[in-house]
Amino acid sequence: MAFCCGFTKGYQKRSFRSSEKGCRNCPLRLECCGRTTKFKKIEVSIHKPLYDEMHEKLNRDKNYTRFLVKRRSSTVEPVLGTLINFLGMKRVNTRGMKNANKHVLMSALSYNLKKYLKFKGKKSNSNIQIMNLAKGMLRLFEYWFLRTSKASF
Questions:
Q1: In whole angstroms, what is the distance from residue 111 CA to residue 148 CA?
Q2: pLDDT (tens digit, 9 = 90+) per residue, 97-139?
Q3: 12 forms bridges with which residues in the sheet?
Q4: In what residue span(s) does the Transposase DDE domain sit (predicted)?
Q5: Domain range annotation of the chain
Q6: pTM of the predicted model, to two decimals?
Q7: CA-CA distance, 4 to 15, in Å (whole number)?
């Protein structure tokens, strides 16, 4: 198979493509290529060796795998679940990586602000002070956000 490196739309991958001549008389052609395609094309990430190394490591050491799954389920998954189910992050409704990063940043800010307000609410009895602090933080973020970005949501 011939190799060509593709750099399309920021995703770096390796493309392997067979020749039409090589596939023409192959007995497995129908299973491999199908009826209409005349060649086989396989695309893999440039980071495939790292993925393979991690899979080997996880298959080799079951205790390490259990540890990673337990740690992830207690740290990352609850945050993602909250963002998806309660903060409307089922999909990013913007175009481009820059705007998608802003969208995720705003979601993370709202998540952290909710946690902060919940934490401060337990310590302080004055909800007015907390709301003023939250408004100030949002104004500061809006100022920073408008200064650093020319594109809008």
A1: 21
A2: 888 888 888 888 888 888 887 877 666 556 666 667 777 777 7
A3: 7
A4: 13-116
A5: 2-46, 47-90, 95-153
A6: 0.47
A7: 5
